[in-house]
Amino acid sequence: MFASLKTIDSAFQQVKTLAIIFIIAVLLLAGAIAYFAFQSTTAAANRIYVLEGGQLLTAGAQDARANRPVEARSHVTRFHELFFTLDPDQKAIDLNVNKALYLADNSAKKQYENFKEKGFYNDLIAANISLEMTVDSVIIGNARPLTARCFGHQRVIRATSITNRNFISDCTLRDVTRSENNPHGFLMENWRVVQNKDLNTLQR
């Protein structure tokens, strides 16, 4: 009789062990299914389907904040190219400068008014001088508010010579609403020219 009870107890222990193993296996399987289902749902949420010309195209969704440093560099580059690339034509100057002023605060407007008061633009037109700004690099800081330092060079093209200048400027960047005039959604604040000195002059 005792032998029979031991056999029953042993069988019960085996069944209990198998039941525990089975429950753990089911929980692990359920966890794995839930994980892969979540991954698939996330991947599907980041996929956008676009119908173009009768064809279904796939486009990926991305967090807009991931591209902000790239957009910041493009914003700063565009401002400097517009503000400092000038031809001896009043309409062309006004067009470029007005586009640039949408991208910056009053610090840029003050510089523009300072140039006007000194007759800078009139001198360009009278002497048929063209200015070309090339931005070499823009360094964006990691902290908020974002800071930007622009490195570039400028060519002053006269009838008889070309002067090359080294150019450096600083500013901070504030997030604003995107618009047609400001597609990157940044506003340059406290902009100042740190360095703008002649490097060399070549005769034409």
TrEMBL record:
Keywords: Membrane, Transmembrane, Transmembrane helix. The chain crosses the membrane at residues 20-38. InterPro entries: Conjug_transposon_TraK. This is Conjugative transposon protein TraK.
